[in-house]
Design goal:
Layout (H helix, E strand, L loop, with lengths): L1 E5 L8 H6 L6 H12 L3 E4 L11 H8 L3 E5 L5 H4 L3 H16 L3 E5 L1 H5 L1 H6 L4 E3 L4 H10 L13 E5 L2 E4 L22 H12 L3 E4 L2 E3 L16 E3 L2 H15 L3 E4 L10 H12 L4 E6 L7 H10 L1 E9 L3 H6 L6 H13 L3 E8 L6 H14 L4 E5 L7 H6 L25 H29 L6 H32 L1
Parallel strand pairs: 1-2, 1-3, 3-4, 4-5, 8-11, 11-12, 12-13, 13-14, 14-15
Antiparallel strand pairs: 5-6, 6-7, 9-10
Helix pairs in contact: 2-8, 10-11, 11-12, 17-18
The chain binds iron/sulfur cluster (SF4).
Iron/sulfur cluster (SF4) binds next to loops.
């Protein structure tokens, strides 16, 4: 069959990410396209990453004349897990256009999993639930069959006269090494490269080495893999890295796994293989504080080229970590950060404000943790209830009609909490300035200890620190005002 793939992440509809200019190609979409191509189908891609109007899909449909149009979101990228309404609207427009052109329409995304009916009533013929490559293959293979019944294919939702129907759940793929490498040839890699070079001076590609996460943080939505965790072999990953280096010459890799290298000994084997392959590259990963306490693991990460680890720290208050079922301690966050720094790897922290029960003292604990640990970067968000999570169930009764953010910078608190949503937005701004001020001040303190290393760049930082102090103070004053207003 002739299949046109797409996804619903329009970078232009996410102003913060557009400004950042660090887009990653839709990896899961490329995996699905590669899988279907390996089964003998003809595949093409309409990649809306740099497109400003969903109607542009029409041109692509006219060019490729597909029988099936598949909106297949990149479930490896946390941005798609946010289920932003800008992207949902764009997906629904593309679905309507594909239907007008007579295509069968199939959707696989976190948002479609949570809102099956919305997608099906907007024109999608099928929504794929769970890991979707094999489901898509079976579904496309059956579409022309006179005995076709979606109920016989696990992992499918469709609309019948009685409403939404779902077949039995799809089992996950276990042997990830058998999955063909993503169909990178379908992507305009140069468009990604030039955007990266313009914004950062280097080119980063994304890659996945695992699927899923076995931990149970109660606010984390895992509509595709649930709590299962499967991993590729280190050799398979290195083979793909070699191919990507030969074809695209990347400088940097983002391993987009929820948890990189969880299997015992995986990171060590990976480091040995990277070294013997002669590959030299920098990379960043996501991990947990409790997995970064062993010197040999962290040393192996460094040996392989890791320069930055993002830790889901979330809070400096043990009370809040426990309420989240995070399964880590503030002490472990402290220890993991120190271990990474000792091995020359920069730690960065994901921070979350606004979890139910968080009060002023908990927020202060988080600010103190950031000041003490001085991570290279912080990613600050507010608690965001996603369907299917324990956290969502806890606050469901308080959710208004608005249950999703419009774009990734909206940061609206959508349930009743200690403070109003405006407080958390201001807190987000404050923390960013506070962190920059603390980082720069620490840099200058180090400089004073080694005056021989003073340079023009360091002098610039010297002046910047005054600016950061001023912005932190102004931002903090606004925050106090908001706190007082709410107390009246
Ligand atoms: S460790 Fe990360 S990916 Fe896993 S459940 Fe917790 S937040 Fe989610």
């Amino acid at each position: 069959m002739n299949i046109l793939f797409s996804h619903s992440y329009f970078l232009r509809f996410d102003p913060k990410q557009w400004k950042l200019g660090q887009p990653y190609a839709p990896l899961a979409t490329l995996y699905a396209a590669a899988w279907l191509r390996a089964q003998g189908h003809s595949v093409s891609l309409f990649d809306p990453m740099f497109v400003s109007d969903p109607a542009a899909v029409s041109e692509s449909i006219q060019e490729h004349r597909p029988e099936v149009f598949v909106v297949y979101d990149d479930g490896f990228n946390y941005l798609t897990k946010m289920c932003l309404t800008n992207m949902r609207d764009a997906a629904l427009k593309m679905i309507a256009i594909a239907r007008e052109h007579g295509c069968k329409v199939i959707v696989s995304s976190s948002d479609a999993t949570d809102h099956c009916e919305t997608y099906l009533r907007s024109g999608a013929d099928f929504v794929l639930i769970g890991e979707a490559e094999q489901t898509l293959h079976e579904l496309v293979g059956e579409l022309r069959s006179p005995d076709f019944d979606p109920a016989n294919i696990p992992g499918v939702a469709w609309l019948s006269d009685e409403g939404v129907k779902k077949s039995e759940p799809r089992q996950l793929l276990r042997d990830l090494d058998k999955i063909p490498f993503p169909a990178w040839d379908l992507v305009d890699v140069e468009a990604y490269r030039s955007t990266w070079l313009k914004s950062t001076g280097y080119f980063s590609l994304n890659m996945s080495t695992t699927r899923g996460c076995p931990f149970k943080c109660n606010w984390c939505a895992k509509p595709i893999y649930g709590n299962r965790y499967n991993s590729r072999s280190p050799q398979n990953v290195v083979d793909e890295l070699v191919m990507l280096r030969q074809r695209y010459g990347f400088d940097h890799i983002w391993f987009c796994d929820d948890i990189f290298g969880l299997k015992p000994g995986w990171v060590q084997q990976f480091a040995v293989l990277v070294q013997s392959s002669g590959l030299k590259f920098r990379f960043k990963i996501q991990s947990r504080a409790d997995l970064l306490l062993q010197d040999d693991t962290v040393q192996a990460l460094k040996t392989a080229g890791c320069e930055n680890v993002w830790i889901g720290a979330e809070s400096g208050s043990q009370k809040i970590l426990d309420a989240m079922d995070k399964g880590i301690t503030v002490g472990q966050i402290r220890e993991a950060t120190a271990t990474l720094k000792r091995h020359g790897i920069a730690p960065s922290l994901f921070i979350q404000f606004g979890y139910p029960g968080e009060n002023a003292a908990d927020i202060d604990n988080t600010l103190s943790m950031i000041r003490e640990l001085l991570p290279q970067s912080i990613g600050v968000s507010v608690s965001y209830p996603l369907p299917g999570t324990v956290f969502f169930e806890r606050v469901k009764a308080q959710l208004s009609a608005k249950a999703n953010w419009t774009d990734s910078d909206e940061l609206a608190l959508m349930f009743t909490n200690t403070y109003q949503p405006s407080f958390y937005r201001q807190l987000h701004r404050y923390v960013q300035w506070y962190h920059r001020k603390n980082l720069t001040a620490a840099y200058l303190r180090n400089l004073l200890a080694r005056p021989s290393s003073v340079s023009i760049a360091s002098l610039r930082k010297f002046f910047a620190v005054f600016y950061y102090y001023l912005r932190t103070w102004l931002s903090g004053a606004r925050l106090s005002l908001l706190t007082r207003k709410e107390a009246i």
